[in-house]
Design brief:
Structural class of chain B: alpha/beta
Low-confidence stretches of chain A: none
Shape of chain A: elongated
Distance between the termini of chain B: 31 Å
Number of strands of chain B: 14
Radius of gyration of chain A: 19 Å
Helix content of chain A: over 70%
Shape of chain B: elongated
Largest interface: A-B, 20 and 25 residues
Oligomer: heterodimer
Number of domains of chain B: 2
Mean pLDDT of chain B: 83
Chain lengths: 159, 308
């Protein structure tokens, strides 16, 4: 099976541009900063002891911030997918090819989803901090995952 | 090969095409000439097909653009007036992308891309990013893109606009070569001399209507300013002959010199000359001020403000 030409092009363009590592770095910097700030504030000043029960709170905060950040990032990424073609004056050239408009839209959607997947997967090491401090966040996984996947499947096409 | 029959298209209150008719033969280069806003791009967008006409019929190789747009897209290569590029792709990748959209097998693509880049003189730029190409190079790359699926018909909207004289000459050379390959080309411009010399047919469009169509010679003869005739005797009698002669729109006597406005082909002009030679002691027959192509264009569309 051959990959859609629009999807291949979008992925190539997305991961070639210098903007992509910067978005990734900025995203991780914000989330990482929140995690470190949380640990700093939750650590007892005299003993330097971090209460393991805060681990769950760290997990919840991380998930909520991730959800909030994706809420900003996803529409920004998806809304420019088609309008960017119009701005660059490449839409007409694309529309005169035998590709159907549906194929073009779905390919762009998949390319954007791939990038969002990268953002989410890149934050997994931060979640490990929540685990390593002895929290018991397992019960929180289904809820937070559901929130993120909801945003993924409804937020991306909406954008 | 290309047919417009009574095509009409409006954008709100503006009528872009008004009962527009045009026929382009297979293997011909047809120049669609008109001022800005005349309806050239609308006609080409209907053919692409990017927009639908309100009325009338447009066909490419007998295929209706409204009924079978996807089939038409496989037959045509379209170069819009204003177009952009994916600047972060390399030249080879750019053409490879469009080859993939036409489902050209990946094994064939490298050779095809090399052939096309050689045709447009960009072989050495294959690995260059598109954003570093000059405008002329981008224009040629766009032509290569149009040819990626070996279309029968090429629709080129102002392919030479904004180019320097050298780049314009290169584009014209490529279009000539496309004719040799048997392609049918519909090429637009708002400057008649720019493409007049490479076209088999010229269609002049003004306010959405076809004003004139024919070979360059036909178009030139349509707009001939006039002839000056000098006779030695009986100028008055010759004048009355000329006044009723077919093709003579106006005849004015000034002493022994008669100025006539004659709209006819070169053959008809030769016939007129024979007619005069039998009836008068003709001493001179000359064209008044041979018009430049640009002047012809303006006279056909009704002056330099014709486009507004």
């Amino acid at each position: 099976m051959e990959i859609s030409p629009v999807l291949e092009k979008e992925l190539r363009q997305r991961f070639r541009t210098v903007k992509t590592p910067w978005i990734l770095a900025f995203y991780l910097w914000i989330l990482g900063g929140v995690v470190l700030a949380f640990i700093f504030l939750a650590t007892a000043p005299q003993s330097g002891f971090f209460d393991p029960s805060y681990g769950e709170g760290l997990f919840v905060i991380l998930s909520l911030i991730q959800l909030g950040l994706l809420g900003f990032v996803v529409p920004g990424l998806t809304s420019g997918a088609i309008s960017g073609e119009r701005e660059r004056q490449t839409l007409d050239v694309l529309l005169v090819t035998p590709l159907s408009p549906g194929e073009i839209v779905v390919s762009k959607l998949l390319a954007t989803s791939a990038f969002i997947t990268l953002l989410v997967v890149a934050t997994l090491p931060l979640y490990i901090l929540a685990f390593s401090y002895g929290g018991s966040p397992w019960q929180g996984w289904p809820k937070s995952s559901a929130c993120i996947w909801w945003l993924y499947f409804f937020g991306v096409p909406w954008g | 090969m290309i047919t417009f029959q009574g095509v009409e298209k409006s954008f709100g209150p503006v009528k872009a095409l008004d009962n527009f008719n045009l026929q382009v033969e297979r293997g011909h280069i047809c120049g669609l000439i008109g001022p800005n806003g005349a309806g050239k791009t609308t006609a080409m967008n209907i053919l692409a097909p990017l927009i639908l006409p309100d009325r009338g019929k447009a066909e490419v190789a007998g295929i209706d653009v409204i009924q079978q747009p996807r089939e038409v897209r496989r037959l045509i290569g379209y170069m819009p007036d204003a177009f952009g590029f994916y600047d972060d792709l390399r030249v080879g990748e750019y053409l490879g992308f469009f080859a993939a959209t036409y489902r050209i097998p990946s094994s064939r693509r490298p050779q095809l891309i090399s052939t096309l880049l050689e045709l447009v003189g960009l072989e050495s730029r294959r690995e260059a990013y598109v954003n570093i190409l000059s405008r002329g190079m981008k224009q040629r790359l766009s032509l290569a893109r149009c040819l990626i699926h070996d279309p029968q018909v090429l629709i080129l909207d102002e392919p030479a606009s904004g180019l320097d004289p050298w780049a314009r000459a290169e584009v014209k050379e490529i279009i000539r070569y496309l004719k040799q390959l048997g392609k049918t080309v519909l090429v637009s411009s708002h400057i008649l001399p720019e493409i007049g010399e490479i076209c088999d047919d010229i269609a002049i469009i003004q306010a959405g209507r076809l004003v004139a169509m024919g070979s360059l010679e036909d178009i030139t003869s349509l707009a001939r300013e006039g002839r000056r005739i000098r006779v030695l005797e009986e100028a008055q009698r010759i004048l009355s002959f000329l006044a009723s002669y077919p093709g003579v729109k106006e005849a004015v006597l000034n002493q022994e010199e008669i100025s006539i406005t004659f709209q006819g082909s070169l053959e008809e002009q030769a016939e007129l000359l024979r007619f005069l030679a039998h009836r008068a002691r003709l001493v001179e027959f000359a064209e008044i001020g041979g018009k430049e192509l640009e002047e012809i264009f303006f006279s056909l569309i009704g002056g330099v403000d014709g486009g507004d």
